[in-house]
Design brief:
The chain has 593 residues and is α+β, with helices and mostly antiparallel strands. It has 13 helices and 32 strands. The longest helix is centred in the middle third of the chain and has 26 residues.
Amino acid sequence: ELSGLLYANFLQVNMDTEKTEVKYGIQVSERSPRHSWDIVAAFDIGTSYSGYAYSDRKEMDLKSVSFNQWTGNMVSDPKAKAPTTVLFDKNMRFHSFGYEAEDFYATQVCEKKNDDWYRFKNFKMVLYREKNVQRDLKISDDSGRSSLLASEVFSQTIKSLKSHFENTVRERALQFDSGNVLYVVTVPAIWKQSAKLLMKEAAMQAGIPEAQLLIALEPEAAAMYCKSLPEQTLTDTFKPHKRYMVLDLGGGTVDVVVHDVLEDGGLAEVYKASGGDWGGTMVDREFERYIQNIFNSETCLKELWNLSPRDAYDLEREFEMQKRQISNKAADIRLKLPARLQQVGKVPVTSSITFDHIYVQYPKFKEFFENPKNRIISLIKDILNEVGRLDQIILVGGFSSSRYLYDQLKSHSDISGIDICCPKEPGLAVLQGAVLFGYNPEDVRYRICRYTFGFGVLQDFDESIHRADKRDKVDGEDVCKDVFDVLVYEGEKVKFDDPKFATSKSSHRQADRKHIPIKKELFAGKNIPQDRTVYVTEEGIKPLGKIISHAPKEGWSNLVEFKTKVYFGQTEIKIEDFDITNNVTVNVEIDFL
């Protein structure tokens, strides 16, 4: 509806005649990023493993970060992360998380009671692969018998980490105010805004107030960790004018950022976050296909999980260990063969299979790595061609523990001249760095936009630049509708605290319009031309989400002029709306789902 809008480059806003509720709309936090928190806790929900870390102000002064140690019947020694496994009962009520969920489910399988339980694993990748992430997105359990809202599965995961963290700090008798704890939740830098928002809403659903919640990008968090290491660890990497790449090789995704180190030690992104779904689980899938071929059964591993989860888990862990240890030095791999698997497959003894072991020849084992290795190298080469130089590549994430992958990258002819390093415990780099990021969220001063962002606006119609089919009438004047008014272009460098501005006006003279929420739609696109008028209805431009401005208690004045500030240089898009007419800040929600 265009009636009542002033136009001259103003936003096309939707002023509903009825009040609209937005249950999960995210409001702009008024808490200063420089706020002095008692404790910062970070939650890293990974494809395969998840965990938390934390530090209070005293520990942070010593650059000390604490981890939990998870235990379970399936592990011989405590681990800093637990399996990303969530278990629900037959009524879809949450039961347990991590090793507790794995142990309990294994018991139910042994007692043949597992039909009453629903296990969710490796669900994080759904948010990357789903093209249109919405609140009603569902995730199927392992068996495919049922599904739950993705927000519920993520929320219970975060709630489990939060509850465990709270119990831990109480046991340590740390002095803190529960309202003065910052919770940092990590997400891949290559995720869409809608996926980030779903994760944020899941955290809020888990009981974290928005004002105490911060989203951190995983490779950036890892960079913060590496930056905090003793100087001799990464030599000159973080000295002014150096340029480095963080290659976050996780279980599900490969996530890359490239930073320049500024004169004051701050960081500036020089290439938009990139990556893909080429993480360590891609190697796992190749191994699974190999096993299926040997046993001539596409369901043998699934049957093993159903018959004996502990045997399946042991095989999975042993393969993971070999995946990390194999190097460029040729040697065949020997894996313990679960008796149940041989029973399922009914395969005779061969050169590859004995009564109790599987032998994988070295050339075949290397093949498991070929696809992700080639994609990672191709990505590095593409980025190198764009940025011109790299002083160092830092490998982090669980997949970077693979000695073979490290050797292959280091010896590749196109990147062999670049120093490649991997810190100790690379699988914990994101988690530790996320705590540091919570105390210093402004350390990444500049980021590169992955998309072109803007609003749909009305302009005075000019037949020399506007399409005839976009001509319309507003208040008796000829206007052009659906013009894409760009705020920031793809590839543009934006500062952390430097907003882009848009203005709009709306009329509220009628009584039924005094308290209506005003909706403005933000659009995003790629490869947007800068030499002609572009319209939000063109192919490749999609609505990103709505900005909803709520009326004050006394209602809107007759004519309101808004100034909207949009911050693109932070880990998530932030919005502020200001009523210029009455000199007041407007209550704003943003909804990308």
